[in-house]
Amino acid sequence: MKKHWLCAAGIMFSSHVMADNPVIKEVFTADPAALVHDDTVYLYTGHDEAPNNDVFFEMHDWLAFSSTDMVNWKAHGPIMKATDFKWAIGDAWASHMIEKGGKFYFFTTVRHNEEKPGFAIGVAVSDSPTGPFRDAIGHALVTNDMTTQTPNDWDDIDPAIFTEDNGDTYMFFGNLVPKYVKLTDNLTALDGEIKVIDVPNFTEAAWVHKKGENYYLSYACEFPEKICYAMSKSIHGPWEYKGILNEVAGNTETNHQSIIEYKGNDYFIYHTGALPPKGDQPSGGRFRRSVAIDPLIYNDDGTLKRVVMSTEGITEPAQEK
Ligand code: FUB
User: Fold this and answer.
1) According to its UniProt record, which residues of this chain constitute the active site (predicted)?
2) What's the rounded Cα separation, in Å, for the pair 223 and 246?
3) CA 240 – CA 133 distance, rounded (Å)
4) For 239, which of 66, 188, 220, 230 could close a Cys bridge (C-beta 3.0–4.6 Å)?
């Protein structure tokens, strides 16, 4: 059953894969978003299917993988496709999964139909981290006309969700102009105005996490993209820019990160275009990206060491620290 979706696509794929970077070798994976739930890491990715690296992204659905040691990964297949949102016409771009009250909420970028042309953010829901997912509200949460800071119709992409200890949940998102907005308690509506964030060189791919008393906003910066980061003592900022966290990733201009702590270890999950060709599968590249994982290391003052991208990846199974 687990193999069904990939066999149907003509790809033979064992449901278990072993790490070293890129982590997933049997299919192209991009825009990682990881969730730690019940001692398991769930890794959600976009699915690059471009026939070559010349034109643009071709992305129809999102994939899920899970691991209990960050070395061995189990494939769960696609959890949803862009057009499962009836108002969307495609482009299954970056996403973020969170759990609340035993339900799993999948926030994701798609292209809206002609009623609200341009990119949009939708939210889907499921009782299981591996789906099936259904549109939670029957319409988009954010549409292009709600973000007027740039003339681009993709300035409202890449949702990143953060929940405060008191349960308040915020969505960060945007391209060129970073933005955030509070969500209602049921996560299916905006609860306030969309506010602009002041950080330098922002391109896209916001991700917010907290360690101790420090909040971290990491994001793809410049183009080709590096990952930069800023720190704050509050989810509302001000954000103090701290510099580059990850350099341009090999063989692709985009870079997109997810940061988690699992069993007391810190991980930086990103994508590269580094997957070599194998059999019928062509080489990776700018529109055929692959998820990689390396350690994330904090300095004593809370700042982050620059990530060392490696081909070895995570070699030691995660053990409780
Ligand atoms: O994968 C499509 C887009 O490329 C994502 O939404 C961006 O973050 C960049 O990775």
Assistant:
1) 31 (proton acceptor), 204 (proton donor)
2) 13
3) 37
4) 230
Is residue 31 among the annotated active site residues? yes
Determine the pLDDT at residue 12: 37
What's the confidence (pLDDT) of residue 97?
Answer: 98
For residue 250, the model assigns a pLDDT of 85
The best mutation among 254, 255, 272 to test binding of ligand 1, ranked by most ligand atoms within 8 Å of the C-beta, falls on 254
Tell me the two tokens of residue 15: 């449901």
Residues of the chain with pLDDT under 70: 1-19
**Ligand 1 centre distance from Cα of residue 254 (Å):** 7
Pocket, ligand 1, Cβ cutoff 6 A? 30-31, 46, 57, 93-94, 109, 157-158, 204-205, 254, 256
pLDDT at 321 (0 to 100): 82
Supply the residue whose CA is at minimum distance from atom 2 of ligand 1.
Answer: 93
What is the number of the ligand 1 atom nearest to the C-alpha of 157? 6
User: CA-CA distance, 233 to 1, in Å (whole number)?
Assistant: 46
Q: Where are the domains of the chain?
A: 29-305
Using the atom order of ligand 1, give the atom closest to the CA of residue 220.
8
Mutation to probe ligand 1, out of 204, 253, 269, 291 (largest number of atoms < 8 A from CB)? 204
